[in-house]
Design a protein that fits this description.
The protein is built from twelve helices and 14 strands. The protein is of the alpha+beta class. Among the domains are: 31-121, no CATH class; 123-228, GMP Synthetase, Chain A, domain 3; 273-337, no CATH class. The N and C termini lie far apart (74 Å). 18% of the residues are buried.
Amino acid sequence: MGCTSCATNTSGTPKGCKNNGTCGTDGCNKLTVFDWLSNMSLPGNMEPFNALEVRFKNGRKDFFRNPENMPLTIGDIVATETSPGHDVGIVTLTGELVKVQMKRKKVSVKLEELPKIYRKANQKDIDIWQKVREKEPEVQKRSREIAMALGLKMKISDVEYQGDGSKVTFYYTAEDRVDFRQLIKDFARAFSTRIEMKQVGFRQEAARLGGIGSCGRELCCSTWLTDFRSVNTSAARYQQLSLNPQKLAGQCGKLKCCLNYELDTYMEALESFPKMDVKLLTEKGRAHCQKVDIFKGLMWFSYESEGMTWLELSVDKVNEIIAINKKGKKVSALEEFMEEKPVEEQNLFNNVVGQDSLTRFDRPNKKHRKHKNRNRNRKNNPKRNAKN
């Protein structure tokens, strides 16, 4: 998720735009929103919506009001109101599109109910913010050791310091309810700050941490997907996928969200197909369905007495046989409804990619032959041998 001029430097910071991850297009951030209203002017009697969207660590976003009407743009670092103290974040959206996002996320658009932005972050705020951010990996490692010593069945997946360092939030996942009252006391004694525990789901954990999926692209949940719909194994069955947990599960351990993307198309295509448990009545016996190809519109049937012999039929032919069976009649055999396909001649070798000739090694090497003739002439020349 980067703009066209963005690249990664050896130190990990973006290069190209030279803005260290706060480019004007906001393409370096997770779950970014394109401000398609930025070039449109408001009507003369309408005041701009005085609220901003601010992003914090790992794509966490919140909405704030701008009571002092400060000229803020996308990429500005601001100090925001929180309890206690203040937090530091990056502005990701301004203008009327903020109201659209608030309605979409079911947040009240009343400005007086929103927390406010104190100021643009000065150098002191940024130094403190970067200092506490550098402590997060070590704090996460130490917190996991404390949780393991207490024998708690939980996984601390992420740690987030508040911008002023007055509070630290621990994000964890757990299968069952966890009694972490003693854990909070140990954390407060070890880190000397205010502690907050926040439980997240496995999908939310993968969205916060991010990563690369089996398709080779960034995870959908960390780039653009915001609503996590339930995914069932029936989605894989409708798409004729093998129920292999290792292939169907994502990095969160749950079924991949992309199983729902094409499910509606498969369901629409399967409306013309008969059910898999349908039985065709013929004079040679009953036939059962063995396989279905949704893309080609084909079905394979086999007789009960000949289970290893599969017969390929189109969906139209199968529906025709079913209509005949409903009238109380039997067809003579399924072979009569099979369509003959022309057999294409297969060439054993096609020179389609500019391959070299198969006899290229049989050609004589002229350079090698010249070298041999030269050695022979030296041996047969008595004058040159006498000089040597």
